[in-house]
Design brief:
heterodimer; A: alpha/beta; Peroxisomal Thiolase, Chain A, domain 1; 2 domains; eight-stranded mixed beta sheet; six-stranded mixed beta sheet; 32% helix; globular; B: mainly alpha
Chain lengths: 343, 149
């Protein structure tokens, strides 16, 4: 077996990559939510001073990326890779952001799991000695996603109670070979799981089996139990998906009730329009950057498992009655004072 | 976890569905009745007023036009989607809802230009209504004229 692999699919880092900075930019609705004061920038409206929502999303991602660099005191020339992804066709928000950055770019797509995929790949690049600093980012915008996946925004219709609300948010993290900050300890790359859910209004249930599978393999691979983590964050299963995921894990003898939180249930208050919770690439990324990252940095949280989950469908596959495959990547993070040893 | 078999998938779908919050059917039906009824009452009043000045057939056609205009106007003002969210089918079923379903994609795709955006996408939502509406009108007419006529 490769020296840094444990069990079936977990990779550990003998020298842990450090997340030296995190930045988040959100829309007005997210700014009014319970995490509002924690975000770095809140746009006054959903257009962010641009002429289209697509341009607004790119601007938000650009702002998040620039902020993450500024916070870490790094210039483009010092960053070796830029890894980013979003929900839009051809991941335009990420590519158009990269157009303005002087950094080698790798575009990613993992739906809402993108930030997990980016953190995993960024950590591999640093750990493998291919990079000193890697910028990872992802974004989503409610209105750009809505027009691509569902209906025109001005179309009057009722939302289904099990559906999730795509957030307007962008976040960026700077991973580095050295520096101060929370560290990436281990990564479990997820398998695509499909339990036959065809309802595009219930993506939480479509992603829950992937979450359960990844968490289960992560714990088995490292010989750990949920109690080894201060918190396990799924992003974003929503209310329906969280229940399904916890049920699936319980059937396997793992009780996550004490430590599980869903970032899709953290970003908004109890608004009926949100239905089952929030979703979107920007949701788990911005909640991590604004809430989880500072708590890890201060040592309030000692070790957390971040598990971004993605629904890998498209409007076309849904119309053709295909089921929705899900994916989840687990990233184990520890606070800066964590003793470096073989995990 | 191993790959799911058909039985596991079926069980899982059943489990996931059991976690769905119930749809507020009674509330939805009541609001649809009240708001849909209110929209139709407005149309009835307009028809009543117009009937005093115009022949009945013309008054009916003009009432429909006025209601379509009102639906389009409220969509443009950003109000009709709120009514739709609140009243569901009560806002979708009257002809104002049809106007909303044509105007909302037209507005949405304005940034993609007038040819490939507005006009190409205008019937994205309403297209099926027009196709199947025309088709069923044709079938009913054939039945009326040649079968029962």
């Amino acid at each position: 077996m490769a020296p840094n692999r444990r069990g079936s699919s977990t990779c550990v880092f003998p020298k842990m990559p450090v997340i030296v900075s995190a930045a988040s930019v959100v829309g007005p609705r997210e700014g009014k939510g319970p995490l509002g004061p924690l975000f770095d920038l809140v746009c006054a409206d959903t257009l962010c001073g641009e002429t289209s929502w697509e341009k607004a999303e790119t601007k938000m991602l650009r702002q998040a990326v620039d902020l993450a660099e500024a916070k870490a005191g790094l210039e483009d020339a010092e960053v070796d890779f830029f890894l980013a992804g979003d929900l839009l066709n051809q991941i335009i928000s990420s590519s158009f952001t990269a157009r303005d950055k002087d950094i080698p770019f790798l575009g990613l797509y993992g739906a809402c799991s993108t930030i997990g995929e980016a953190m995993a790949l960024g950590s591999f690049l640093i750990s493998g000695g291919f990079a000193r600093n890697v910028l990872v980012a992802s974004s989503s915008h409610h209105d750009t996603a809505e027009r691509q996946y569902r209906y025109p925004t001005e179309f009057g219709h009722q939302r289904v109670p099990s559906s999730q609300w795509t957030v307007t948010a962008a976040a960026a993290l700077l991973l580095s070979a050295q520096g101060e900050g929370p560290k990436v300890e281990a990564v479990t790359v997820g398998r695509v799981m499909d339990f036959g859910i065809t309802d595009a209004n219930d993506m939480g249930s479509a992603m829950a089996p992937a979450f359960a599978d990844t968490v289960w393999r992560h714990l088995i691979d490292l010989g750990r139990s949920p109690g080894d983590y201060d918190a396990i964050f799924s992003g974003d299963l929503g209310m329906v998906g969280s229940k399904a995921a916890l049920h699936l894990l319980k059937k396997r003898g793992i009780d996550l009730k004490e430590v599980h939180h869903d970032t899709g249930l953290m970003i908004y208050g109890m608004e009926p329009e949100i239905c089952s919770g929030a979703s979107g690439c920007g949701c788990v990324a911005s909640v991590f950057a604004a809430k989880i990252y500072p708590e890890l940095k201060s040592g309030k949280l000692k070790r957390v498992l971040l598990v971004p989950t993605g629904a890998l469908h498209s409007p076309t596959t849904c119309q053709q009655a295909e089921s929705i495959p899900g994916i989840a990547h687990a990233v184990s993070l520890v606070y800066p004072g964590w003793e470096e040893r073989e995990p | 976890m191993t790959r799911p078999r058909t039985r596991e998938k079926e069980e899982y779908i059943k489990l996931a569905t059991s976690f769905h919050p119930p749809r507020p059917i009674l509330r939805n039906a009541l609001l649809a009745f009240l708001v849909g009824g209110a929209i139709c009452t407005v149309a009835q009043v307009i028809l009543g007023v117009l009937s005093t000045k115009l022949p009945r057939v013309q008054a009916q056609a003009m009432t429909s036009s006025i209601m379509v205009f009102l639906g389009a106007l409220l969509t443009g003002l950003g109000v009709y989607d709120e009514i739709g969210r609140f009243a569901g089918m009560g806002a979708a079923l009257p002809i104002t809802g049809f106007a909303n379903s044509v105007v909302s994609p037209a507005m949405e795709f304005k940034r993609e230009g007038f040819v490939l955006g507005v006009s190409a996408r205008m019937f994205q939502v309403a297209g099926p209504v027009i196709v199947y509406g025309s088709l069923s009108a044709l079938i009913v007419t054939i039945l009326r004229v040649y079968v029962f006529g």
